[in-house]
Write a sequence for this structure.
């Protein structure tokens, strides 16, 4: 097999030499004691970027979401979320098992949003038969809807529907900066209507590990306790946080390159009748299979040197990232062409 272009996820990015240098020289201390200067700097920077009072550095986006659910709710309460949300599909049921909440999925529209009227109609507070609804979780960009970016108006309408009934709103912004770059707005505007927000440092931003959860000071203080409970209190974590600081300073603007690459790859795929491809808005390309089998295509692509992720029974996903430059895009397209050729024989 020839050298592969790994487009399974933007989590496969590796720290650049400059990022590794920043990590190697990071000032560190015991973060559980609040004494790691680099973690403190990252948390403050992150909070400022998304327009919240405080931040909390956590090992993963999954833990950030779990801490948000634990902190916004009490056991036995109900969480509204998208039917295509990461929390519902990919977080091992932590909202149920660890936070003791009942998740109630509401249909995600194709654009990744949830109809505000549906949110309002599904909030349950007074009836003693029902679990009490206390939280709405939304996602931007929306991964399973193809990396769709929700603008501030859509986010605001969903958040208003929740807030008008005194429900808190958490934004899973794993790829929030992709949304901000795609919409050409400040990330802060996309989080403004939400009580808490998390974003991943370990995806397109290129850091090896970590997410930051941001919100009001009191919420983050309480979240810090939950992080300790979950085993997420790390010690000289400044080594990792330094990569996050570097990423926030150097890797946000370039996300636009990933979006351009994704559009080019989608064009390349669209030449082939075997695939149906919607135009990507950010760095995620969803490919529906028209002919052949999913396993067959994944194998053919792998043999040609392109790694993809299965994403439903007749769909695969390609994600562009820091490790794929504009020269690589032509290579990716050539290899896809080769896979299609090989499949015909
Ligand atoms: C990746 C991702 C997360 C968090 O994933 P981790 O692998 O736990 O960091 C959360 N939400 C969305 C939408 C994601 O894509």
């Amino acid at each position: 097999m020839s050298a592969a272009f790994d487009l399974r996820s933007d989590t496969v990015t590796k720290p650049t030499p400059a990022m590794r240098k920043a990590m190697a020289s990071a000032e560190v201390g015991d973060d559980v004691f609040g004494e790691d200067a680099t973690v403190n700097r990252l948390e403050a920077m992150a909070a400022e970027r998304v327009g919240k009072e405080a931040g909390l550095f956590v090992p993963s986006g999954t833990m950030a979401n779990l801490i948000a659910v634990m902190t916004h709710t009490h056991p036995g309460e109900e969480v509204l979320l998208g039917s295509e949300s990461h929390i519902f599909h990919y977080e091992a049921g932590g909202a149920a098992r660890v936070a003791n909440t009942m998740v109630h999925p509401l249909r995600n529209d194709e654009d990744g949003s949830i109809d505000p009227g549906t949110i309002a109609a599904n909030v349950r507070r007074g009836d003693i038969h029902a679990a009490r609804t206390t939280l709405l979780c939304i996602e931007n960009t929306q991964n399973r809807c193809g990396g769709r970016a929700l603008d501030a108006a859509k986010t605001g309408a969903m958040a208003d529907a929740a807030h008008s009934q005194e429900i808190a709103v958490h934004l899973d912004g794993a790829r929030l900066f992709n949304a901000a770059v795609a919409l050409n707005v400040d990330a802060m505007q996309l989080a403004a209507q939400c009580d808490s927000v998390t974003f991943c440092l370990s995806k397109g931003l290129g850091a090896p590990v970590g997410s930051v959860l941001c919100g009001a000071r009191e919420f983050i203080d309480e979240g810090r306790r939950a992080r300790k409970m979950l085993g997420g209190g790390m010690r000289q974590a400044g080594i990792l946080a330094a990569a996050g600081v570097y990423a926030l300073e150097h890797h946000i603007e370039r996300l636009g390159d990933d979006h351009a690459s994704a559009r080019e790859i989608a064009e390349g795929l669209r030449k082939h009748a075997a695939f149906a491809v919607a135009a990507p808005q950010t760095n995620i390309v969803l490919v529906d299979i028209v002919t052949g089998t999913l396993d067959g295509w994944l194998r053919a692509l792998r043999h040609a040197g392109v790694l993809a992720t299965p994403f439903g029974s007749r769909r695969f996903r390609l994600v562009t990232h820091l490790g794929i430059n504009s020269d690589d895009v032509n290579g990716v397209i050539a290899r896809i062409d080769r896979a299609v050729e090989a499949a015909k024989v």
In short: The CA atoms of residues 301 and 339 lie 5 Å apart.
